[in-house]
Design brief:
The complex is a heterodimer of chains A (211) and B (194). By secondary structure, chain A is an all-alpha fold. Chain A has helices spanning 2-14, 17-36, 40-60, 63-66, 68-72, 75-81, 86-115, 120-148, 154-175, 181-210. Chain B has helices at residues 44-52, 83-93, 100-106, 122-136, 152-167, and strands at residues 5-15, 18-29, 33-37, 59-65, 68-71, 140-144, 171-175, 186-189. Classes of the chains: A mainly alpha (211), B alpha/beta (194). Chain A: This is Heme exporter protein B.
Chain lengths: 211, 194
């Protein structure tokens, strides 16, 4: 299992994953001050929401590379011949994907906090929320990738599949920035729910893809 | 390895609502081999996938005692890694990391161990995938069109590896539309369902 996680990680990073996520995140975060104007109060007000929406998009970024290449190369078949459960493969992919993009997103959020005029205490809550929420996003991305693998226009469909399910994380994550621990608890709960469910959804999708 | 067994009993295969073949049976004990022949599209690859447990048969049952190794059309080797690392990933999963150099030598790719997989030719990739099967040490080899893309010398090499595997008590099931020399192997023509 560790070998599979390491393989996922290596593939994520060799695809320029870490820098790509960082650059993408910072670019999007930079767009907002330009688009809205340098109104510090307004930026501080929307900053957290911007970061969460960007984190969601960053999780979606490699969705076409997560599952489809492995299906086409026969890698999933080889796992299955070795008796590895499909849900287990999905768990390994979730862990690999999270390590590939979660820390990068958290780092990028800290960097963009300055751009978005974010106070330190809000940034702290934001980072905590991202730490709790990004694993859920990773799980959702892997499940989505497995579901849309082999479809035409998979990238666009993936967005439509994933975004509605990611909404609760976004709502609670941005809500937690207002203060109070209950928001973070809701983020953690939603994230756990996604983490628990996604491997089975992804596993079933992999099974169907084999048929 | 000597207790390995592969039994297919009354297996039928349905793909896209169409019955490809039915009532297919075979039983292989240690050291035995079978060659499934037939024209394109008759369901040879599906039969191999059924034997591998990747595809559920529409009817019948599959019983395998011993680990299975699959050589299919897709090589399942990470193209950006070196040959030794790509084969080594699977060997590590099979608990056989140490057998990689030996397996690469066996398929004549020992000198290319440090070359990235993407630089290899079609035939070399095929042999690399064969090295994955050899290194894994599974008792039951399921080879789908193993000579595709292989030149005459490599085909002879493949036949030698199969013979060695059988001598060691292994089982080999080959599906091929071109002849493969497997001395003493049962030849089973796959017939379309009536």
């Amino acid at each position: 299992m560790i070998a599979i996680v390491l393989r996922e990680l290596r593939r994520a990073w060799s695809g320029g994953g870490l820098m790509l996520t960082l650059a993408f995140f910072l670019l999007v975060a930079t767009l907002f001050p330009f688009a809205i104007g340098p109104d510090a109060r307004l930026l501080a007000r929307i900053g957290g929401g911007v970061v969460w929406a960007t984190a969601l998009l960053a999780a979606l970024l490699p969705v076409e590379r997560l599952v489809l290449p492995d299906l086409e190369a026969g890698v999933i078949d080889q796992f299955a011949v070795r008796g590895l459960p499909d849900a287990g493969i999905a768990v390994a992919k979730v862990v690999g994907h999270w390590i590939g993009f979660g820390p990068a997103v958290m780092l990028a959020a800290a960097l963009s906090a300055a751009l978005l005029e974010m106070p330190a205490d809000v940034l702290l809550r934001l980072e905590l929320g991202l730490l709790l929420g990004t694993p859920g996003l990773a799980a959702l991305a892997v499940a989505t990738a497995a579901l849309v693998a082999g479809m035409r226009g998979a990238g666009a469909v993936a967005g439509m599949v994933m975004l509605p399910f990611a909404l609760p994380l976004l709502v609670f994550g941005a809500g937690a920035l207002e203060g109070g621990g209950s928001g973070l608890k809701l983020v953690a709960a939603t994230s756990l729910l996604l983490l628990a469910g996604a491997p089975f959804v992804a596993g079933a999708a992999l099974r169907f893809a084999r048929e | 390895m000597s207790t390995a067994r592969l039994v297919l009993d009354g297996v039928a295969c349905r793909r896209g609502g169409r019955l490809l073949f039915d009532e297919f049976g075979l039983a292989l004990a240690a050291g035995e081999a079978a060659l499934v022949t037939g024209p394109n599209g008759v369901g040879k690859s599906s039969l191999i996938r059924i034997a591998a447990g990747l595809l559920a048969p529409a009817a019948g049952r599959v019983e395998a005692t011993g680990a299975r190794a699959l050589l299919a059309e897709a090589a399942a080797l990470d193209t950006e890694r070196t040959l030794a690392d790509a084969v080594g990933f699977w060997a590590a999963l099979d608990g056989a990391r140490g057998r990689v150099p030996e397996a690469l030598d066996a398929v004549g790719l020992g000198v290319l161990a440090e070359v990235p997989v993407r630089m290899l030719s079609t035939g070399q990739r095929r042999r690399a995938a064969l090295a994955r099967v050899v290194a894994g040490g599974a008792a039951i080899w399921l080879l789908d069109e193993p000579v595709n893309g292989l030149d005459a010398a490599s085909t002879t090499l493949l036949e030698g590896l199969v013979a060695r595997h059988r001598a060691g008590g292994g089982i080999v099931l080959v599906a091929s539309h071109v002849p493969v020399a497997l001395p003493g192997a049962r030849v089973l023509p796959l017939e379309p369902a009536a």
